[in-house]
Amino acid sequence: MSEKLKVGVLGATGMVGQRYVTLLADHPWFEIVVVAASAHSAGKTYAESVAGRWKLEEPIPANVKDLPVLDVKEIAKIAAQVDFVFSAVSMSKDEIRKIEEDYAKTETPVVSNNSAHRWTPDVPMIVPEINPDHSEVIKYQRQRLGTKRGFIAVKPNCSIQSYTPALSAWQQFEPTQVIATTYQAISGAGKTLQDAPEIVGNVIPYIPGEEAKSEDEPLKIWGHVDAAKKAIVSATTPTITSQCLRVPVLYGHTAAAFVNFKQKPTKEELIAALENYSGEPQKLGLPSAPQQFIQYMTDDFRPQVRYDVNFEHGMGVSIGRLRPDKIFDWKFVGLSHNTLRGAAGGAVLCAELLKAQGYITKK
């Protein structure tokens, strides 16, 4: 019998769900045994359910294509077959909050790509290299839910991955103010360039909800677990303001960021902090962890989506063009892969961390 943990993917037919399926196909710790989606897809094989709408370059994994698609609302049936689930369901936020809690209450951990629980006070929102200790809040969440092993953990929005890691590496210099403008790939909307003719030769200056996420989610990540409140309390600095634009790129979110610091670091100190920054995933040797979390690129024409988005198999972050600014202290450009580090890959790494910490176990 396999020693791998048995996994279900909720929302397996969408773009993020498809990315989960490919990432987990040969995973050393996890094995997909359930794929679930809406009632419309239920009863079909996975290959049938995504026929004509498979969005990735990689083929459908052979060990998944013949699995029957279950109705995501068949909670008890799915929970009985898995050790934990990844969630990428497409529903209203209220529906997502309820269904993820319903799964957790069956003693099934939920690692979610959705935004619905990011501001639930006792739900950790984890970037494994930055705030692995936030998993400590799970004990309070379990008290609230009345569970022994069930809980919900989430990953943050893809829009923040291209600049938040750099700011995390620079925490010792006390950043106080940040402007971040993100140029976000169309796959962040679950589409390909062929699905979105409106983006070809165009830039769309508004992505609903993204700017609030870009400004607020890093503060929760930099916060702390408050035992008295049984919750994560967000940091109060730096102040972040942002604009988020959709651009005609398939994969890769680019950020142009400006930073003021309380301390006054040199360029050499900032670059060294980036290149030396690592965390628990590297220390533990987690399967999906990049060896180098952040790379600094000295060529002024880099990072570029075309050449750099797949750095460390899409799990690393690329920073370049660090230079003094006339109004702020420093400015830089960042790049991250939005469906790997920013979505499914980040959630898989989060699950690996939670397994290593003992929160996700065999039932």
Structure description:
GO terms for molecular function: aspartate-semialdehyde dehydrogenase activity. Its EC number is 1.2.1.11. Keywords: NADP, Oxidoreductase. It comes from Loigolactobacillus binensis. With 363 residues, this protein is of the alpha/beta class. It contains 11 helices and 14 strands. It has a 6-stranded parallel beta sheet, sandwiched between helices. It has a 6-stranded mixed beta sheet with strand order 10-7-11-14-13-12. The chain is globular.
Give the number of domains. 2
N- to C-terminal separation? 14 Å
Judging from the principal axes of the Cα atoms, what is the shape?
A: globular
Helicity, as a percent range: 10-25%
Q: Look at the structure and name the CATH superfamily of the largest domain.
A: Dihydrodipicolinate Reductase, domain 2
Total DSSP helices: 11
Reading off the top of the CATH hierarchy, the class of the largest domain is best stated as: Alpha Beta
**Average of the residue pLDDT scores:** 97
Rg, Å, rounded: 20 Å
Largest sheet: 6 strands, parallel
What key phrases describe this protein's structure?
6-stranded mixed beta sheet, ASADH-related, Dihydrodipicolinate Reductase, domain 2, alpha/beta, 363 residues, Aspartate-semialdehyde dehydrogenase, oxidoreductase, Rossmann fold, single chain, aspartate-semialdehyde dehydrogenase activity, 11 helices, 14 strands, 2 domains, globular, 6-stranded parallel beta sheet
List the helices and strands and how they pair.
Layout: E1 5-10, H1 15-24, E2 30-37, H2 46-49, E3 69-71, H3 75-79, E4 84-87, H4 93-104, E5 110-112, H5 138-145, E6 152-154, H6 164-169, E7 175-184, H7 210-221, E8 224-226, E9 231-233, E10 239-246, E11 253-261, H8 267-275, H9 280-284, E12 294-297, H10 305-308, E13 317-324, E14 330-336, H11 344-356
Parallel strand pairs: 1-2, 1-4, 2-3, 4-5, 5-6, 7-10, 12-13
Antiparallel strand pairs: 7-11, 8-9, 11-14, 13-14
